[in-house]
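Proteins fold reproducibly. Next comes an illustrative record:
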Amino acid sequence: MRRGARPATRAARAVALASAALLLTGCAQSVDPIERLGKKAAQSVRHSPPAPARPLSVRTGTRAVDHVPTTDRVVFLTYDEEAVRDRRLATLIGELHLPVTVFTRAEAPAHWRARTTHHGLTYRGTPEHLTPGDIIRITPGRESTLAERTAQVLKEARRRGLTPGKLTDYL
């Protein structure tokens, strides 16, 4: 770093280095059964081309979306901002190239139609199973980590013939 660099520049460089270090931590081959399970699930996932991006119209006072109307066989994995500190989750996402969305609660334009609990997935409304376009909120639990809960969601999605999609491509 050069002498006299601005504090904002130094901070930006520090963030970039920390991000690179976090990404590189997932480069080693894992022996974790949850991550291996995720790899097996990803091998059977069909990757479809992303839908053209559509603008999201958000009005003050209207309800945020919890489901995206689509004929594509996709569901959307969302996490709270605390997920960025979970190394096991970062490794799983990196190895499987999962499209995920992380929100700060104040700026989230989306809610969830299904969410993880210690009992499995809990649904808002009907039907009480995953359907194309569902937004899934994955939260940590006392008994399981975000990576374990993500693996459970991937299994259920695969069972229903669904694959994770990138939410911003559909909003």
User: Anything to note?
Assistant: Residues 7-24 form the longest helix (18 residues). Confidence is low (pLDDT under 50) at residues 21-31, 45-61.
